[in-house]
Amino acid sequence: RKQATEYSTSSSDDEFESKPSLTHKAKRTLRRRKKLEKETKQLIKQEELKRLHKAQAVQRQLEELEERQRALEFFGVKLERELRGESDSGTKDETQMLHEWFELVLEKNKLMRYESELLIIAQELELEDHQSRLEQKLREKMAIDDSLKDEMDLNEENEI
C-alpha cells in the first residue's frame, strides 16, 4: 500500500490512502491500550489475592495465638493458686513454682508483642487495600475527558 501511495500522481489518491493508515494506527493504539488495561487489571487482581492470602494467614495466626494465651492463662491461674497455698499440690517447692510463674509471664509478654505485630500487619493490609481501591477509582476518573467533567467530578478527582 505504501509503495502504491508513494508512486501515485494524484493528490486526492494520497489523501485517500493516508486516511486508512491513520485509522489503522488508531486501531493499533486502541488495541495496545486495551491490552495494557487488561494487564493492569490482572496485576491488580493478583495483588488483591496476595493481600487476601496474607490476611487469612494473619487471621489464622491470631486465632492460634489466642488459644495459646488462653492455655497460658489457665496454667497461670493454677500456678498462682499453688503459690498461695490454695491448692493441695505440695510436691513442688516455692522457688520452682516462682521460676515457672516468671517463665509464664515472659511467655505471655512475648505472645502479646507478637499479637501487636500481627495486628499492625493486618492494619497495613487494610491500608494497602484501601490505597488500591483509591488508585483504581482515580484511574477511572482520569480516563474521562476533562471537558466532560463537572466541578464536582474535578473536586472528587483532586480529593482522591
TrEMBL record:
Pfam families: bMERB_dom. Residues 1-31 are annotated as: Disordered. Transmembrane segments: none annotated. Residues 45-160 form the BMERB domain. Residues 22-31 have a biased composition (Basic residues). SMART domains: DUF3585. PROSITE patterns: BMERB. Residues 1-11 have a biased composition (Polar residues). InterPro entries: bMERB_dom, F-actin_Monoox_Mical. PANTHER family: [F-ACTIN]-MONOOXYGENASE MICAL2 (PTHR23167:SF39), CALPONIN HOMOLOGY DOMAIN-CONTAINING PROTEIN DDB_G0272472-RELATED (PTHR23167). This is MICLK protein. It comes from Nyctiprogne leucopyga.
